[in-house]
Write a structure and sequence with these properties.
Layout: H1 15-31, H2 36-69
Helix pairs in contact: 1-2
Length: about 70
């Protein structure tokens, strides 16, 4: 069973690039041309990207709050 892995981890991407990559994965999955193993790998990659974006947004929100409190 082979896994499909990305060579670029989420932390190497900007939030915009991570979001674009999630959109690309969604389109690939909607195409219906992926095997079950590929779908599983894409879901794992999407989850990592989503968590990365969520963390970045939370950190940005905390920074904005800190600036507003000053």
């Amino acid at each position: 069973m082979s896994k499909v892995k990305s060579t670029t981890g989420p932390k190497d991407l900007s939030i915009e690039e991570a979001y674009a990559k999630m959109q690309k994965i969604l389109h690939e999955m909607e195409s219906g041309s992926l095997s079950i193993d590929q779908i599983i790998a894409k879901l794992e990659e999407s989850k990592a990207l989503m968590l990365y974006c969520k963390e970045k947004l939370k950190n940005a929100e905390l920074l904005v709050q800190k600036i507003q409190e000053e």
